[in-house]
Amino acid sequence: MATRRPERQNGAVATTQQRSPQALRTIGYFARALVLVVVDGLALWGLAAVLPGIDVPTFGAALLTAALIALLNALVWPLATRILLPLTVLTFGLLSLVLNAVVVNLAIRAVDGTDPTVAATLLVALGLAVLTMVVAPLLDFDGDAYHLRVVRRRVREGRRANRTDVPGVIMFEIDGLAERVLEEAVERGSVPTIARWLKEGSHRIVAWECDLSSQTAASQAGLLHGSNAEMPAFRWYERDSGRLLVANHPKDAAEIERRHANGGGLLADGGASRGNMFSGDAPRCSATMSVIRDRQRSRSSEFFAYFADPYGMLRTIALSVADVAAEKRAYRRQRRAGAEHVDRGGVYPAMRAAITVVMRDLNVATLMADIVEGVPVAYSTFVGYDEVAHHSGIREPDAFAVLRKLDDQLERLERTARQAPRPYHLVVLSDHGQTQGAPFRQRHGETLEEVVRRLTGRGAGVAAPESLDEAWGALGTMLGDAREDPSAAGRILRRATSDRATPDGDVALGPTRAALREYDEINAAVSGRDGDQPELIVLASGCLGLVYFPGSPERLTAEDIERRHPGLLAGLAGHPGVGFVMVRSENEGAVALGGAGSRRLSDDHVDGEDPLAGYGENAADHLRRHDSFRHCPDILVNGAYDPTTDEVQPFEEFMGSHGGLGGTQMHPFAVVPAEWSLPAEPIVGAAAMNRQLRAWLAETGQ
Questions:
Q1: For all residues of the chain together, what is the average pLDDT?
Q2: In CATH, what number does 149-437+663-700 get?
């Protein structure tokens, strides 16, 4: 949806049209502030009556105290937040509560002359924050009023420079959402904003097909840089360098971008990258993994306006607590029902809240700032649905609940666009989907690595640490941005996180810290630096398995594998949890093998039953492309997919997965303005989608 500015007269916006919205916003702000002061005064008076350690005897004193709190917040808070921004990010906003308690303490002392206790002021600060969280949206006449006022002040010059009739474009990526699941969400009422766009005819859904492997790194490299060649999975082994690459390891992400970027990425012309894996050559980035050490482009100051709202972060904290409770309820419900599930204990509920609430709100806040400034194009990834669907399932109620909250953010961006110096198109897209299915290990009692070891008789091998996943990586990147801030707080944060900081610039959180140590140990082993190389490397990316024999300087052929490990290929291809394996034959080239047949990829000749039946009409093309990669594994293994149940068997511990072939994981979407042209042909591959996005941007005048 493009929000239009007033029509121009002789090249300028008519004066009465220009002033009216500003006047309404000013009147709305002061009316809202007055009502909030009265409500806060009543709340403060009530809290003083029931809390020990605080004494505000009259309503008049409470009202005056509330007014002073509001004044102090307006004058002091933005400066204090800017100074302490990195520490605020580190504490995920808890420092905001402490700062707000200090303001409350000062106001009570100034008005009443009493000395409230620390506990009392913290409780008052929390109570006022919760009340404001509930009341403020009911009074918010122009949407996120305080936040947007701060933004407008900070970007005044940029707004003037970006005033134009050429529409800007905001690309809102919902990681892991398949087209079919989006359509179901529309029917269920889980995405009312998108449903309204479709019903009113302002937007339409454009389907596309991602590459093998169907995961964020390959898709975003293609979408943002126009190339994702030589990326066989989320993690892979490279014989020439003797190392593993894991896409969301900051050092590896930077290397991947170096290989694919040419300076002319999708966001190169004044764009912004928010919370992505790769930058698209954007000159302005925040929480973008591949450029975390590039301080010319990656700046934590982009979060300033969000934290400058004294109640915005406290609202996020409250929503995070609610999300933790919702996750625990959903997990108990799933277990009581006897449904298939994976373990979601430990730190997962807190990590989920950080992803689905904190990172979401930060990304939306930076997008709102981009809109108010008039940035021509911005791209932001929201990983909350992907994370919840991995652990709960792609159609579980809590996964759809996350979609509802993401849809709410689209409405906030719509409102914000009314204050932009240019019209805006809002685009919603995904990088890949997910396919439902219980893990391979749960179904068969052993992992893929254990199956390969059993069939080869090899007791020693290497498997990559699974805890280096997208969610932990996104959080570490955000904190890595904050700790590089040049302020005194940035220096304090660097010292505070020195034991968790990696040489690549991010912060290792949760199990990622141990996983990174394991990752380094694995790289030392596979490179041979610590002695002999392992005979076997087995890696997993969803339902895609990669088997390497690193002792060979070149990729082994099917005949080599059979001579060295008789029965391995037949054992894998015939396993009930495996759909097919792909190897390269000396005589026939690339071949897909199944339990009851094979398919020669050079000419699509099939012997017996076609092992690729049910995996999509482009499955053979995807495998042919994969076979051409320099780092294609000796054996590529795809988990079994059942088209009747639409379920796949992933090699990782997920209920919803992606990475290989089979089902909805290969079918993302783009919700685009209806006025944009229809693609001339089906869009297959992220690079093709990049070309289509560029064509659409050109249509808007960019």
A1: 84
A2: 3.40.720.10
